[in-house]
Amino acid sequence: MAASMPALEDWVRPGDVAWWWSLLAVGMGRTADMFSTWIGTPGLRNEGNPFARWLGWRKGILLNVLVVPLAACWPMIAVSLATTSAMVAARNLHTVWLMRMMGEDAYRDWFGGWMHATPRLLFLGCHWGEALLTGGLGLALVVLGPLHVLSFGIGVGFCAYGFAVAVFTTLAYFRR
Fold this sequence. Notes:
Layout: H1 17-40, H2 50-71, H3 75-102, H4 104-117, H5 120-144, H6 149-175
Helix pairs in contact: 1-2, 1-3, 3-4, 3-6, 5-6
């Protein structure tokens, strides 16, 4: 017998079928994000999120161990967090091989040099374009789709990813 999908506003109890599926989704997303970050920047010197850099690995892992089961209690949040985390992990994996090969500091110097050699509007415009495309798709899912846990949650996840790309890329540009 198939379990019914919770509504957008529903909370689920730990141990329920929907909670386990939500836990699996958000746990996989957060693990992928953290693992892809660790591959590229084990010292967190190239971490774009200043809060994650401030927390460090031990506190960051502890925070995730506490947040993931709690997020799984609200499937919409779990789907949103899983979507955002998976997209961040995919973005990380796009360049972590280069970071690992060059080393954190050499990669940062190399990338930073090219980043600042590029006209500011071109560099930021490309990253803001990525943010607007993914965030716009997410907004369309949120606004135009049915109020369903999956479409709404994925839409919120896309919007959060777009916001993160815009904010953290801009911060990285001006941090140097």
